[in-house]
Amino acid sequence: MIEGLATDNQVTLGLVMILLAPLAIAGVALVNTGLGRSRSAAQALLGNAVLIAVAVIVFALVGASFSGALGGGHVALNVAGKSWNLLGLGPVALSGFGKSEVPAQLRLLLEIFAVAFAVIIPWGSGADRLRLAAGCAAAAVMAALIFPLAAYWIWSDGWLATLGKNFGLGTGFLDPGGAATIHALGGITALVTVWIVGPRRGKFPREGLSTAMPGHNAVYVVFGSFLALVGWMAWNVAGAVTWMGTGYVLIQTALNTLLSASGALAATVALTSVRFGKPDASLCSNGWLAGLVASSASAALVGPLGALFIGIVAGAITPLVVELLELALAIDDPSGAITSHAAGALWGLFAAGIFAPGHNQLLAQVVGIAALLGVFLPLVYLLFAILNKIVPFRVDPDGERMGMDLHELGGGAYPEFVIHRDESYR
Amino acid sequence: MKYAGLLVMPAGLFLVLAALVLFPDGPARGGFAACGLAVEVLGLVVTIRGNMPAREAHR
Q: Considering only CA atoms, which of A235, A10, A292 is closest in space to residue A113?
């Protein structure tokens, strides 16, 4: 696929799009911050930046050699007469980066941004009680092992990417925009993080429904979604250039991203208006993000009407999944990352199989989804459970009562404003 | 219970992979793979159920 980057123009376009893509990361960081409480806002936003720094360094030093971005050997199993490529074994610490081919350099740059994106998704779900040190440790584990494994399987010549060659399943598992490697992986990690760190204090009282703890700044949340929209269009185009290398589909990829996001937002606004009488800003932003996430899998592969339909479904399921997680399953996810990233990505990957051309493409997508749930969820759970014994994830009760800003940073984000005490939520 | 669910999920994946290896192209392959995915979902449900916090556990 990478061989498609034939001309200098394509390389330039790919580089420009990749450099615009971090706007999506900035947008999601702002959404994470706005959906948390005001007394943890500075820790939340600074934490996003610190986690990105840790992930970039660890991936550059360790993870990149396993992701196969710069080529090299691999670990493979031969089963049933087929080669199952499991792990890349490339150069360590980016040695030889300057001498590698330009397309490989572009691919590595996109992977570095991808790992930076993946690690901030669980950070939002652990808002208001996840310690910064634990977030950094989790980001390091993700960047060193979990993300490179997924990136090799899906974006390099791993067993999921070669499903088409080995088993006649379309063109293998397709994920040009990172719905699986970034969003499904990030969402699954968010779910595990929430399980390990537990719900916020007072979230699930002894009697009655769960306590509503609305985000402290809807403007951050909605503006973060705007930023994400711009970055996502660039990201999906960058993914299409980097992994598919075709020229004509790029404009349609950007259009499909916009259509998917718009359909999702419209669906969430309509559904929350019917359900609650008025649209809800945080749910609508999560629906918008879910449409963008779903487009990551499919924008480069489907037509405009298909993209619109995929977005509408992603937006429609968002408020339903949020309610299911909070009210029925007692999962406290302040940023809604499990819904917008995990559920949105899984739907997008499945829908790509329905709408994308290619014989047996749907089965290839099902196998990819099965691998995400069957390998990465247990793996992340095991690694994070061990990590929690070494670096406790949850802040102590005094720290949670005080707020993460005062406890971890020594100063609040809004020193001139009155901060709500816990009792105001009861 | 949550650990049992976590073990069931990879078992579901092995069913999906077995479908690819054992069946040639056809509806049986898709059906078997769908069953494997259903097993994974079952494991996920068990894991979620096992991780549900007791009310007031974190107050």
A: A235
CA-to-CA separations, A362 to A45, A163, A168, A398, in angstroms, rounded: 39, 12, 12, 50
Q: A62-97 b/e with 16+ CB inside 10 Å = b?
A: bbbbbbbbbbeebeeeeeeebebbebbebbeebeee
| Residue carrying the six token digits 């499903």 | A163
Which pTM was predicted? 0.94
Half-sphere exposure of A131 toward its Cβ, with a 13 Å CA cutoff?
A: 17
Residue A189, Cβ density class (10 Å: 0-12 exposed, 13-18 middle, ≥19 buried): buried
CB-based burial label for B32 (10 Å; 0-12, 13-18, 19+): middle
Q: What is the rounded CA–CA span in Å between residue A63 and residue A118?
A: 14
Structure tokens at A152: 């090799």
Q: What is the DSSP track for A327-343? A: IIS----TT-HIIIIII
Taking the C-alpha atoms of residue A227 and residue A241, their distance in angstroms, rounded to an integer, is 21
Instruction: Tell the residue number behind the tokens 């980057």, with chain if given.
Output: A5
Q: How confident is the model at residue A1 (pLDDT cuts 50, 70, 90)?
A: very low
Q: What are the tokens at B58?
A: 């974190």
pLDDT digits (tens, 9 = 90+) for A90-108: 999 999 898 898 889 999 9
Q: How many degrees, rounded to 5, is the angle at CA A313 between CA B41 and CA B29? A: 45
Nearest to B58 among A198, A360, A363 (CB): A198
Nearest CA in chain A to B10: A374
Beta-carbon contacts of B32 under 8 Å, excluding residues fewer than 6 positions away, are B15, B16, B18, B19, B22, B23
Interface size between A and B, measured as CB pairs under 8 A: 82
Residue B53 φ/ψ, nearest 5 degrees: -70, 145
What is the C-alpha separation between A256 and A352, in angstroms, rounded? 12
- Which residue among B29, B33, B55 places its CB closest to the CB of A205? B55
Which value does ipTM take for this structure? 0.93
